[in-house]
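Lecture 7, part B: from sequences to assemblies.

Below are the input chains for today's worked example.
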Amino acid sequence: MAKQDSKSDLAGLLSADRERVVDQWIDSVVGSLKGRISKAEVDRELRELYAALVEALVAGGEDARGDHLSETRALLTELSRNRARQGFTPSETAISVLALKRAFEPALRDGSAEDTDRYLRLSRILDDLALFTIETYTRTREEIISSQATQLMELSTPVVKLWDGVIAVPLVGTLDSARTQVVMEKLLQALVDTGSEQAIIDITGVPAVDTQVAQHLLKTIVAARLMGAECTVSGIRPQIAQTIVALGIEFGDIVTKATLADALQLALKKSGIDLVAHQGGGR
Amino acid sequence: MTERVPVLRIGDVLLVSIQVDLEDQTVLNLQEDLAEQIVSRAARGVVIDITAVEIVDSFVGRMLATIASISRLLDAETVVVGMRPAVAITLVELGLSLGGVRTALDLEKGLALLRRAAADTDRR
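Predicted structure of the full complex, as structure tokens:
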């Protein structure tokens, strides 16, 4: 029975000076966010949060991971997700919870030992909730990063059809194992889909070629050969040609061309297409 | 009793279409059958269609290279057709580049390749 009292006491602590505490809380949160979110929005968020917290404490939940506080946690999840998406720092997100502790400090100054005890218990719950907020914040950021990585991967590896039976992959950006895997799979699938026997890998947009990148390229070319297609590597810049030779990378019998145009010409010739300049046209 | 892969004849080309999971014994039987038939039917080319093959291991990879070598000894050119992207990637990762084996995207292109190769040798 005594325990029941102390629990509702904690709720009492929150309800006692409610308006002043909430106002102070909102003020300090708005201050820390430096006007990047409107006061009205913060006001709405924090009031909802406060109400949920009071309700949970009245119901007797003091465990931050318990059932009673699930409503509070849901609100916090939404809050930290929004903050993460809008680009706030972890501190600016956590302060939304931790500032509530500060709002209680004035009441503590002239309170009894019992008040201090209640403050400490509340403080423990708030600390746990703050940790939860940061966890959610981090998880959201990780989700954002991984979805961006996927988007980037899709953006940067198009397979284009240049001619009937000739496809090309213009590679842009640094090549690592994961990207090469995607490029390889897309290229091979495109060979099957379009029935192309000639493939051109254009590395004009690749900033640097090291032994690993070369290894990846060679693998892709060998795989294409296994399927019955011929690969040409084009767009090797002078600087990169020097690096490749300096590193001692052997391209073996793989055809390399300086420009995509040369590679296309070769591919067309191999597929039995002759390019003839129109009589009297141009030069 | 292990399954046997049928060997079909189109003109002077033998067609082997692999439709079943390749067990080691099946592969060995196929090698024997193929060697015999190349001789008995005086074949000039062999087309191995692996469109239906989804999983390969190093044994199957070596089998393709072995068949190609055997056929070449018997004066027949081997073309492997219809390799799936996933299979090609697996073979590359296994370090098998099937050096002496010709490849083509599909059966039609494989037969065309053999015709071209035959025309080239006739000219010489």
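Note for the exam: Chain B has one domain: 7-123. Keep this in mind when comparing with the next example.
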